[in-house]
Structure formats: structure tokens, C-alpha cells
Specification:
- This protein has 124 residues and is α+β, with helices and mostly antiparallel strands.
- The chain has a single domain, classed as Alpha-Beta Complex (Ribosomal Protein L22, Chain A), CATH 3.90.470.
- The chain is built from four helices and five strands, in the order E-H-H-H-E-E-H-E-E.
- Strand 2 and strand 3 form a beta hairpin.
- Helix 2 packs antiparallel against helix 3.
């Protein structure tokens, strides 16, 4: 049963501006080491960062928490061997899932026209 739905849209140029202005400090605050490494290895780095950022926001909306009480690095965007994105949750995000008996978390990412989008569906 679906118990949460969240969507977020990020302007890629906004993400690029933040990354250029704050550099490693921004990356370390918002992304895990693996996320930053994978995004920076892509040809369009800002786009890859924007999609990961949108996924984190979409999860927080699906959970109904906003980012209050959650750290950006507690929500990690990963990909399976075929490239399908999924969320790996750590710390308080993982505890929230367990306490609320949420058993499924689905993620879809897209980008077009200078925007990155993410949709998260949570289910019990």
C-alpha cells in the first residue's frame, strides 16, 4: 500500500552555482563520498548532483518530514548493476522507515531542459 509520494524539481544551474561557490564543503555537506565521486565522474556533473539532490528532497516530502531532523547524507542515491536508481537510507532516515513500518522505497529520476526531477514512492 502506498503511504507516501514525493516529487522535487531542481534547476541544474542553481546546483552548479552552489557547487562552484562552496566546492568540497557543499559536496561534503549534501552528498556521501560515493555520491560525490559518481556525480563528478559524469560528463555533466552539475546535472548528476542536481538529480541526487532532487531525490533527497523527494524522499523528505514522501516521508512528510521535510528535511527537519534528517541529514542530507542520510539519504544516499545509489544505482543497481543495470543503472536503476534506488535510495540507501542511513541514520535517522533508516530509523524513521523502521519505526513507520515502511517496507518499500521506489525512486525515479529524470532530467530535461536544465532541470532535474525525482519522484519517490513509499509503501507499507
Amino acid at each position: 500500500m502506498v503511504c507516501g509520494l514525493g516529487m522535487d524539481l531542481v534547476k541544474v544551474s542553481r546546483m552548479e552555482k552552489a557547487w562552484r561557490r562552496f566546492g568540497d564543503r557543499f559536496l561534503g555537506r549534501c552528498f556521501t563520498g560515493r555520491e560525490a565521486q559518481e556525480a563528478l565522474a559524469r560528463p555533466n556533473r552539475a546535472q548528476a548532483l542536481a538529480m541526487r539532490f532532487a531525490a533527497k528532497e523527494a524522499f523528505s516530502k514522501a516521508a512528510g518530514l521535510g528535511m527537519r531532523g534528517l541529514g542530507w547524507r542520510e539519504i544516499e542515491v545509489c544505482h543497481n548493476e543495470r543503472g536503476k536508481p534506488f535510495l540507501k537510507l542511513h541514520g535517522r532516515a533508516r530509523v524513521w522507515m523502521d519505526e513507520n513500518q515502511v517496507t518499500g522505497c521506489h525512486l525515479s529520476l529524470s532530467d530535461d531542459g536544465g532541470f532535474a526531477a525525482a519522484v519517490v514512492v513509499l509503501e507499507k
